[in-house]
Amino acid sequence: MKKLPKDxxxxxxxxxxxxxxxxxxxxxxxxxxxxxxxxxNNHHLNRATTVKDEFILFKRSFKEPEGFKNVMSFLLxxxxxxxxxxxxxxxxxxxxxxxxxxxxxxxxxxxxxLILLTDSTNLVLINPATRNYxxxxxxxxxxxxxxYRCFAGVGFGYDSIEKTYKVVRISEMYGEPPFNCPSVMExxxxxxDSSIDSWREVAGVDEELPRPYNFPCSEIFYExxxxxxxxxxxxxxxxxDINTETFRTMEVPETCANYDEKCHxxxxxxxxxxxxxxxxxxRESSPIQETIEIxxxxxxxxxxSWIKKHTIxxxxxxxxxxxxxxxxxxxxxKSGNLISYDLNSDEVKEFKLDGYPxxxxxxxxxxxxxxIPKGSTQVQNF
Length: 382
Description:
Residues 1-48 form the F-box domain. InterPro entries: F-box-assoc_dom_typ1 (IPR006527), F-box-assoc_interact_dom (IPR017451), F-box-like_dom_sf (IPR036047), F-box_dom (IPR001810), SCF_F-box_component (IPR050796). It holds the Pfam family F-box. This is S-locus linked F-box protein type-3. The chain has 2 domains: 1-48, no CATH class; 49-381, Kelch-type beta propeller (Neuraminidase, 6 Propeller), CATH 2.120.10.80. Strand 5 (106-111) and strand 6 (114-118) form a beta hairpin. It has helices at 6-14, 18-24, 29-36, 38-45, and strands at residues 54-64, 67-77, 84-86, 91-92, 106-111, 114-118, 123-127, 132-135, 147-159, 164-175, 186-193, 198-201, 211-212, 219-222, 225-232, 234-241, 246-251, 262-269, 272-279, 291-297, 306-313, 317-324, 328-333, 337-342, 348-354, 361-366, 380-381. By secondary structure, the chain is mainly beta. It starts with 5 loop residues before the first helix and ends with a strand. Strands 1, 2, 3, 4 and 26 form a 5-stranded antiparallel sheet that branches.
């Protein structure tokens, strides 16, 4: 390697997996400095990759006598084209609740290789490639006596103007029984800024804010904004611009606007914002529940550009989880099994991966060296 020009060495290192790069930091001081540098991290993150470079973070829960055990698995494409195989041991999910509320756990991201795990109280930022994680500090904004806070939506992304990671959390405040009158309900918004490691309240949040739903894939970061599937008399998409920190709404296709016997999820298919309309698992089967509709927004933030991309006869699913390889829809079924549906061949496949019904979550990511932003809480390792 000493005989190679420096730029050739750097170009070779750009193509090396994260695990190997961590070992190579021990080769020389110059390599250590190079691999630790922000420029190298950015180039490694933005290098040309294929679907073969994708990994899957799979979270699930198991019911045990003392509560629920929450587990993360690290998966990659197996020997078969669409197989999923573990490439490292499972780990316990840190900090998240072990009660029945684990069905409300969310995975949000990835953003520069970082993923946010949340429950009703805690927020944990992780890099699954480097196996680093950190519990974010709790919000200082309390609830006055006689009121109760319910967290309705959370989002995580990168502010490209301020060069900082942000977490936004929406909550509704209402009186505890027997004073829980809707007339005293109000919305609160708060933002965590990684550059200052602290929270602040969002101005201009009014009582007419649509209510986000806390379903799997009900939120996504896309085009510098957080998006939530929400409801205010009709189904809407609630948006929060990460740069300006302002709320707005977008319409969904007219046939999806009524909350009848369908649920909705937000994903990205072929780089388009995508809306899934799928059967509500809490209702009895009926003709309207026999299909899943997949809509894409061809021109972002133009309501008239929604088109129906696919209509498929649905297996008995609990909820969508992710889109893999732009053709495989990953679902959890009502029994807690991970299944896939191939948009090209209509093939349904069940993986040997399961958990307590409703607790499965999936995030597809590419390895990155992005460090966990430091703050008042300690960065730890799995």
